[in-house]
């Protein structure tokens, strides 16, 4: 097959533009002028009709396993004003299925109350079956009274390491589970509702949804050990290649490295091991004395402007406490510095490349210490709060950062309610690149928006949903953002995809407009018109399907 007839951007710095791409046996066999490619490769010619052709998007941090585990992923991700509206929505869904009901997608900070509902509040709309309501990030969730009973959580249940069972004044669980307590419940209710055939069906469906967004390859960043077999069943039918990053046996965040076969189906290869250093929204934020003072001083103005939500946000991370480094930390640590070092070394010893979730600057700093002497290129997931000094240390250590600019779009309005004290930056893409860090971008779907074009738009414009700009000087160019979602993203998956050059997999995406020349504010809404994975068509836009495929 020869693809031609539009703007072809190869993402190959040595030859950024081409007139045609030739594909043979799922691999790119020629790139260059139409005459040269035609001479090298036979087969039908596909005219992209003036569209822009790029390497297929690579989303190195995605959660296909979790998405395929549920029928209600993002069922609660609708514009909800307050807890009353959320409870109405839950009530409407309570009749689906039997046994445990798992619902996902609440954005607590977007509710007026700034919190999840309690067991008592859930009982009012769903008293008769165990219910697990998960936030969009999975880092916090809430269960009703039947759910607390089914999970065996009572007043005497201790908090798990790295997690909190929220309690009322009398010490009784409120139903709200935070960080490792939430992940333990997620694992238990996932096992209780397990449906292997349904998983395979939904995984294939979701892979086609990804193809619709131009994605050809993902890193699945939280696959339980048993997911290897399930992936082997689904792999031949997947529209994307899914690199499996496994989690521990018990739940997400369990640092026990599972025994895994080194090989796998070529469409679901083994990637590595995922380690959690800190929480999500309750990340390890580390402030010096002046930053702590400034942060505290800014609270009254935030409360005056944003009311209860500002207080809820300020309370989330807990009271800052001074740690051994002489700085004040809040948020949750899943593993302390020592536990982190042991987990990283155990993962490397087991032959699994570690990817470490570290959102806050405190967790990233400890990770740098933990990786000393480790002869392996590590992935840092998120590194969402960082200053230039820490970025330089990441660059010097040679760690790769997988960041999520779509969080600026999705959550930017909430995350800026309490401004970060200088010189800390939120999603510090420019600061990281300037420090020589290899930065790949990703969605973290379903925690973030699925479309890479939304993320590319956010990396370039730094705009939140309401249109405000967060740290304008952290913006990337279109070229940098697209590279971070193709070439640079493939590199963190140890894949030679993400670039149109001879020998690379023929993973392609055609776009209805060229992101380089589009209005930056319109990049997010550029239409994906076609997607190919290993040379096979995985998506054709309905409006383009009527055109003759070959000329
Ligand atoms: Zn994630």
From TrEMBL:
Hydrolase keyword on record: yes
Keywords: Hydrolase
A molecular-function term among this protein's GO annotations: hydrolase activity, acting on carbon-nitrogen (but not peptide) bonds
Domain of life: Bacteria
Coiled coil start-end: none
Pfam (any one): Amidohydro_3
Annotated Amidohydrolase domain residues: 47-535
UniProt name for this protein: Amidohydrolase
């Amino acid at each position: 097959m020869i693809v031609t007839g539009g703007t072809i951007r190869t993402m190959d710095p040595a030859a950024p533009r081409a007139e045609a791409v030739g594909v043979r046996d799922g691999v790119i066999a020629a790139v260059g002028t139409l005459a040269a490619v035609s001479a090298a490769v036979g087969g039908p010619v596909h005219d992209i009709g003036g569209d822009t052709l790029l390497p297929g998007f690579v989303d190195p941090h995605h959660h296909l396993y979790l998405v395929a585990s549920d029928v209600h992923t993002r069922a609660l991700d609708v514009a909800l004003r307050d807890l009353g509206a959320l409870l109405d929505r839950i009530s409407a869904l309570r009749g689906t299925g039997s046994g445990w009901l798992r619902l996902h997608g609440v954005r607590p900070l977007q509710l007026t109350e700034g919190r999840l509902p309690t067991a008592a509040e859930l009982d009012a709309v769903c008293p008769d079956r165990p219910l697990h309501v998960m936030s969009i990030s999975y880092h916090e969730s809430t269960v009703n009274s039947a759910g607390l009973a089914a999970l065996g959580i009572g007043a005497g249940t201790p908090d798990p390491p790295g997690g909190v069972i929220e309690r009322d004044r009398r010490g009784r669980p409120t139903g709200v589970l935070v960080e490792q307590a939430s992940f333990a419940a997620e694992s238990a209710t996932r096992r209780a509702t397990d449906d292997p055939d349904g998983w395979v069906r939904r995984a294939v469906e979701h892979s086609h949804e990804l193809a619709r967004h131009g994605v050809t390859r993902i890193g699945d960043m939280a696959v339980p050990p048993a997911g290897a077999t399930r992936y082997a069943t689904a792999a031949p039918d997947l529209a994307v290649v899914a690199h499996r990053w496994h989690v521990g046996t018990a739940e997400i965040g369990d640092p026990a490295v599972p025994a895994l076969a080194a090989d796998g189906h070529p469409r679901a290869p083994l990637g590595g091991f995922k380690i959690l250093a800190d929480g999500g929204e309750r990340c390890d934020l580390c402030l010096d004395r002046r930053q702590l003072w400034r942060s505290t001083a800014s609270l009254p103005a935030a409360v005056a402007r944003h009311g209860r939500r500002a207080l809820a946000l300020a309370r989330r991370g807990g009271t800052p406490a001074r740690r051994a480094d002489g700085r004040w930390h809040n948020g949750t640590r899943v593993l302390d510095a020592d536990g982190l070092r042991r987990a990283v070394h155990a993962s490397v010893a087991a032959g699994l490349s570690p990817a470490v979730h570290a959102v806050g600057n405190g967790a990233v700093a400890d990770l740098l210490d933990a990786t000393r002497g480790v002869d392996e290129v590590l992935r840092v997931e998120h590194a969402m709060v960082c200053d230039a000094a820490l970025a330089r240390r990441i660059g010097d250590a040679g760690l790769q950062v997988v960041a999520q600019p779509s969080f600026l779009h999705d959550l930017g309005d909430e995350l800026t309610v309490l401004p970060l004290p200088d010189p800390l930056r939120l999603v510090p893409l420019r600061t990281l690149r300037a420090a020589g860090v290899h930065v790949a971008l990703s969605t973290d779907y379903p925690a973030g928006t699925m479309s890479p074009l939304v993320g590319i738009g956010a990396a370039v414009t730094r705009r939140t949903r309401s249109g405000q700009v967060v740290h304008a000087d952290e913006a990337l160019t279109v070229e940098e953002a697209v590279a971070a979602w193709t070439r640079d993203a493939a590199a963190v998956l140890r894949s030679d995809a993400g670039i149109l050059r001879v020998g690379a997999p023929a993973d392609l995406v055609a776009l209805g407009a060229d992101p380089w020349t589009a209005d930056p504010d319109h990049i997010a809404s550029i239409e994906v018109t076609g997607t190919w994975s290993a040379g096979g068509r995985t998506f054709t836009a309905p409006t383009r399907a009527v055109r003759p495929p070959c000329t």
